[in-house]
Design a protein that fits this description.
homodimer, alpha+beta, globular, disordered N terminus, DNA-binding
DNA sequence: ATATTAATTCCATTATTTGGAACCGAGTTT
DNA sequence: AAACTCGGTTCCAAATAATGGAATTAATAT
């Protein structure tokens, strides 16, 4: 067959890559998938897929329920817990997030750029009426979140282009910047001001201010944001918070350079 | 070579199993591991291990830092986030945990039995001075945690024996039940009362009351607990909470039977 | 009961992993 | 400066595990 090269997860790491691709389709689906469901999207032959799924189940990465549907397994949690606990960037950033939360009283997010999406690393929120770490580890689009756009704004031409090409835009709300051109215009603005807004572009009723964070060698590109409900948070409020967010982001950036830079 | 059979993660799922075993050693280590460090514990030949690590890095499951040390990668977070968000047991249990927290004012944990250890699925805590979800996904020993002992107490003879044989006891505190015999005595007590205590057996200064939760077909064995610091929480307090914890656990158990049972 | 669809097993072929050894680069010692 | 060491990386023939099409069995609908 043609070695059909995919941007992420496709083929390239041999057996492991294919297995993880299967794992991901099942784990990230929004409902339990039966064998045939996976078969339809995986493109693997029956026998092959069946063995891959069995192995994933044996390893505890997937769970096979009595009704023959597959769900993400608990071993993933165990592994990720370590990933989270040991993440140095998160540790460095934590106190700044706390401070930002105290200053604004709203929810603060920390997200890093991974491939074409933003992974939320941490969040600080007072009223945890909404389930606690609902957001951590969550992957969101780069082009319609404050953190995402902030992160994109500090990339160099080549890196940005690599991400944008092949990025599939989806219009989540009427405000979503759903094409490359408008996104580029927005990014130019962000580059000037150092501040990115999300004006209900991802979720209706949700606004945020964000600023970019990155380490010396640009190996890490991330963003911090303060988020609030539109009924309470207007553009003036976002503008008011902007300097604080920007300041926190710069503080993190330099702290990172100091803490992670030397040993590299 | 001899097909040296290990209890968990060793060999059996071919290529994937070995790769995940390597991933786990690196991810669960408490410091960054260099190539040689992994080599020493993995037992794989140099060339093989090198390729396995490269593949894991390419897949984003591990991160290779400029100083040649390996750390858990962000893709784990993304996968686990789905695992957590979609876990039905957690969803069913959540309101009961909240209630228990309101009644006691202390930290409430939900943990499930996986292999020979307890994986914490959720926690409710008011003062989140301590970092937020530090506990979620964390793996703890069965024999010296309230949740763990509670879970063990509802296993049948065979399942219990499978876990106990080959379980390596470690004395975390002077109170730790560090041998099979004393654990069995304790489990007999727990079976009678339906309540398990952790009297500073895992961490000095930490006490808890726990009760077992399980689903109809015993495919799921778990526990709920209320935990507090020893200086504030004496045995009387634990005894006082016991009925509430027990009640919550039974409520969850029956709710599970109702919600998950039918469709199986 | 029977037809239909889904899940699982089989096994000769094929591709990937394996693993020992050679190689490289940087730092140390003689 | 040459020789040595140590950690990491690359190579390639041999061994092994994955592949995938087809047959078998189980589950579900008619």
């Amino acid at each position: 067959m043609e070695p059909e090269r995919q941007d992420e997860g496709g083929a390239g790491t041999g057996t492991l890559g294919k297995a993880i691709a299967v794992l991901e389709t099942v784990a990230l689906a929004d409902r339990p998938m039966r064998f045939t469901d996976v078969l339809a999207v995986s493109g693997q032959p029956r026998g092959t897929l069946h063995r891959q799924l069995s192995h994933l189940v044996q390893e505890g990465l997937l769970e096979l329920r009595p009704d023959h549907s597959y769900m993400p397994g608990l071993r993933l949690l165990k592994l990720a817990s370590a990933s989270w606990a040991r993440n140095e960037f998160r540790a460095v950033a934590a106190p700044f997030l706390e401070a930002l939360h105290r200053e604004t009283g709203e929810t603060v997010h920390l997200g890093v750029l991974r491939g074409r999406e933003i992974i939320y690393l941490d969040k600080v929120e007072s009223r945890q009426a909404v389930r606690m770490n609902s957001q951590i580890g969550n992957a969101s689009p780069v082009y319609c979140t404050g953190v995402g756009k902030a992160a994109l704004s500090v990339l160099d031409e080549a890196a940005l282009d690599a991400i944008l090409s092949g990025l599939e835009f989806r219009r989540f709300t009427p405000q979503t910047l759903a094409d490359r051109a408008s996104l580029l215009v927005e990014l130019a603005e962000i580059r000037k001001s150092g501040i990115a807004f999300d004006r209900e572009e991802h979720e209706p009723g949700i606004r945020c201010v964000a600023a970019p964070v990155f380490d010396a060698g640009r190996a890490l590109v991330a963003g911090v944001s303060v988020t609030g409900p539109a009924y309470r948070v207007g553009q003036e409020q976002l503008d008011d918070w902007a300097p604080r967010v920007s300041h926190a982001a710069r503080a993190m950036t330099s702290e990172l350079a100091a803490r992670l830079g030397p040993q590299r």
